[in-house]
Amino acid sequence: MNNKFLAIATVAVAAVAIILAIGIFGISDGQEADKAKVMYAADDVKIDKSILTAAGEGKVMAKPDRATINMGVQIDDKDAKTAQTQNAQKMDAVVKKLKALGISDEDIKTSQYNVFPQYDYSEDKSTLRGYQVVNMVNVTIKDTAKLGDIIDQATQAGANRMDSIAFTISEPDKYYNEAIAKAIEQAKEKANVMANTAGVKIKATINVSETTAGYQPVYDMGGMEYAKDLATTAAAPTPIASGQLEVKANVVVTFEIQ
């Protein structure tokens, strides 16, 4: 009886050992298979390309067709209310003149309105001497040929403050696209020189990216900061020169070589 029981126990232990061994080796084999599959997948997507990178810059000159200018009225008076009233009257006349010259409401925007107390300082003491009222509007002028005449007529209507003029273009994308095309062509020319010198050939364009873009408005600061009494002293129409705007584009182009 004991011998029979011992034999059965021995068989059971052996069976368990076999099952465990199969499970262990089965898992190990599966892991190795999965690892092999991952390595194979990685080899499938591996990119092994030789590249050449070149930068290019394109420039296009454009004549400005728009201008913006800050203009307005400054009144100084001992009494704040008097200064505000006089300022409002003159500013109303200026705005009416601008509209009569064909400038629309949407192109006339208030940019500043301030009432400043004015003091005299002496021996560490301050004495109020009056008030300064400043009312400024930002005016967009869509015909730069009329700019000088608009400044003169606004001054005659009562404007005595003229800040800097900014010249811009109404279709910047048109010129910028031209600049991009020039920048890419320059990058290609550089790449060809480098490839020929290095003894390789350009196979394809892989990537094109912008690095900097746009243009800066041209500002005319001369003689515009304060135009008080300009209407009575000007002997000729105000000359305004808009010059040229430089529209610039910079790109970096990556090429595949062989």
TrEMBL record:
Keywords: Membrane, Transmembrane, Transmembrane helix. Pfam families: SIMPL. Gene3D superfamilies: Protein of unknown function (DUF541), domain 1, Protein of unknown function (DUF541), domain 2. The chain crosses the membrane at residues 6-27. The keyword Transmembrane applies. InterPro entries: 26kDa_periplasmic_antigen, SIMPL/DUF541. It comes from the Bacteria. One of its GO terms (biological process) is DNA damage response. The keyword Transferase does not apply. This is 26 kDa periplasmic immunogenic protein. It comes from Mahella australiensis (strain DSM 15567 / CIP 107919 / 50-1 BON).
